[in-house]
């Protein structure tokens, strides 16, 4: 590691610890005396931070080696910032002297944290990097009006620093995938070849023991082959993890002394909730609840050992049978995304923007049609841990049932939704025609799909032309449309209340039908 150099005289080592670390002293030369100076530069964390007001000391903590604990009897220089004592290894663990890692947040006015001089914890300055340095700018910069003079507006960054931005940043490490890449990961159809495990062979042998001449047959049976089972797992969200072929585990062969072979273990294939299992055009199973299972292929029966064929008329059978091969099938899996509500709208209506506004889902949003290429499910949280799942699917166009646009293949993801949210773009001329088109396409796909419980959302109300269109839309629809703006968040509460109402009604209807409502 390159030696860290003390570059400025105003940087004091915490508790004078550098004097007790001989290796550092050798590298850096004798410690220089501390003198107060307003400048501060740090070669480790890049460009020099802003000037410190004169009279403020900054303490640079030295990394402590184990056993390098400061002893109370040794003379130590006092830092100007009052901090709790540091334990050995704190610096190595990335803790600062104020206790456990504090959030990178500017202290509120009136809080206990001192705001001048001691507000920027020095150890954070050097361990947290440039963000923390910028945070410190907010505290160290003299009041903006002092620089700019009275009556001049201060630029916001002068007093906010980068703290606000840091709080809104995505967690580091995980990069968001683009819609195109996400589509590659999302698979909603699979052809699958499954073979059950082969049964173990039976054994033909005779008991052998000293002074026991006719011990008789003692060949054991083979174990059964393992089944291949499809099991619903709520953690799995697409069929991408399902491979094209599965072979079950074979059973063990029978052994001597009537030992039976071990059965082959069951092989589980994890599939998402809402998987339909088909063989040809015949639907075999609808795995719509977490924990549902379907035996895709049975394991073969184990063979019989010669002991099995022992009979009164045949006291020494030599016959044994081989294990049976497992069942072999070609299955088709089809995923129909399960969600409580489905967002249905033309391309660019703002479905994805709406889902982003009401949930934590992050579908791509852009000003061109067919931005969304795969279904996204977002969860809306309500009081009492109630969760409503809302699915966003690719935009629907007129003639989708004739395979226009992206076709209607993705409409099966809407099919399972308990209720629908029709999203209309209120800023285009004659927005009411959109609803007719959407309903027509839904009915072409499945009769009666459009008459499910639904709400009509008129999006983009923040635009002037949308406001002008609203009265006519309300008059023509005859039903109430929720006018809102996904971009500005205007009137989203009304949508959330309506969503909750639709969900409660859906749950009540499911319970009435004797079905357990879907839980997320
Ligand atoms: N002014 C305004 N623009 C909006 C609003 N909602 C969405 N938009 C814009 O409309 C465009 C399309 O938004 P998306 O959310 O991608 O629309 P979509 O319905 O998901 O589109 P597809 O995925 O292609 O079907 C984007 O440029 C958004 O910024 C809104 O409430 N007001
Ligand atoms: Mg979209």
TrEMBL record:
GO terms for cellular component: mitochondrial inner membrane; mitochondrial ribosome. The keyword 4Fe-4S does not apply. GO terms for biological process: mitochondrial large ribosomal subunit assembly; regulation of mitochondrial translation; regulation of respiratory system process. Residues 184-338 form the Obg domain. One of its GO terms (molecular function) is GTPase activity. Residues 339-504 form the OBG-type G domain. PANTHER family: DEVELOPMENTALLY REGULATED GTP-BINDING PROTEIN-RELATED (PTHR11702), MITOCHONDRIAL RIBOSOME-ASSOCIATED GTPASE 2 (PTHR11702:SF31). This is Mitochondrial ribosome-associated GTPase 2.
């Amino acid at each position: 590691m390159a030696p860290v150099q003390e570059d400025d005289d105003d940087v004091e080592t915490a508790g004078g610890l550098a004097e007790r670390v001989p290796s550092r002293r050798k590298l850096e030369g004798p410690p220089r005396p501390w003198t107060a100076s307003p400048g501060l530069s740090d070669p480790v964390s890049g460009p020099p931070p802003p000037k410190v007001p004169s009279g403020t000391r900054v303490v640079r903590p030295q990394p402590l080696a184990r056993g390098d604990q400061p002893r109370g009897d040794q003379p130590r220089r006092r830092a100007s910032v009052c901090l709790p004592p540091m334990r050995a290894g704190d610096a190595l663990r990335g803790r600062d002297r104020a206790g456990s890692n504090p959030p990178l947040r500017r202290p509120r006015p009136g809080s206990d944290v001192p705001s001048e001089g001691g507000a920027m914890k020095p150890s954070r300055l050097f361990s947290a990097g440039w963000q923390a340095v910028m945070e410190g700018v907010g505290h160290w910069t003299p009041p903006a009006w002092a620089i700019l003079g009275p009556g001049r507006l201060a630029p916001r960054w002068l007093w906010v620093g980068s703290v606000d931005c840091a709080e809104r940043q995505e967690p580091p490490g995980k990069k968001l995938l683009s819609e195109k890449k996400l589509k590659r990961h999302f698979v909603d159809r699979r052809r699958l070849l499954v073979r059950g495990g082969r049964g173990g062979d039976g054994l033909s042998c005779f008991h052998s023991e000293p002074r026991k001449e006719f011990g008789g047959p003692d060949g054991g049976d083979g174990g059964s082959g393992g089944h291949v089972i499809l099991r619903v797992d709520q953690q799995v969200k697409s069929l991408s993890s399902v491979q094209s072929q599965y072979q079950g585990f074979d059973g063990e062969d029978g052994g001597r002394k009537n030992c039976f072979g071990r059965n082959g273990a069951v092989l589980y294939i994890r599939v998402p909730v809402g998987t339909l299992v088909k063989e040809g055009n015949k639907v075999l199973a609808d795995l719509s609840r977490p924990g549902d299972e379907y035996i895709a292929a049975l394991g073969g029966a184990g063979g019989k050992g010669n002991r099995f064929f022992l009979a009164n008329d045949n006291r020494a059978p030599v016959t044994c049978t081989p294990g049976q091969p497992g069942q072999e099938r070609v299955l088709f899996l089809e995923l129909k995304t399960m969600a409580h509500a489905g967002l249905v709208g033309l391309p660019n209506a703002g479905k994805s923007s709406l889902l982003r506004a009401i949930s934590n889902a992050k579908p791509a949003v852009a000003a061109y049609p067919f931005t969304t290429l795969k279904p996204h499910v977002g969860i809306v949280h309500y009081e009492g841990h109630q969760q409503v799942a809302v699915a966003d699917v690719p935009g629907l166009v007129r003639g989708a049932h004739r395979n226009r646009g992206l076709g209607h293949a993705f409409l099966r993801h809407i099919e399972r939704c308990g209720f629908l949210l029709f999203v209309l773009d209120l800023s285009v001329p004659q927005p009411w025609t959109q609803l007719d088109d959407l309903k027509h396409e839904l009915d072409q796909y499945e009769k009666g799909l459009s008459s499910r419980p639904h709400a009509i959302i008129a999006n983009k109300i923040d635009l002037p032309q949308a406001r002008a269109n609203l009265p006519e839309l309300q008059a023509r629809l005859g039903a109430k449309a929720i006018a809102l703006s996904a971009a500005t968040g205007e009137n989203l509460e009304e949508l959330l209340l309506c969503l909750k109402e639709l969900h409660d009604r859906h749950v009540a209807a499911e319970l009435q039908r004797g079905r357990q409502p879907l839980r997320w």
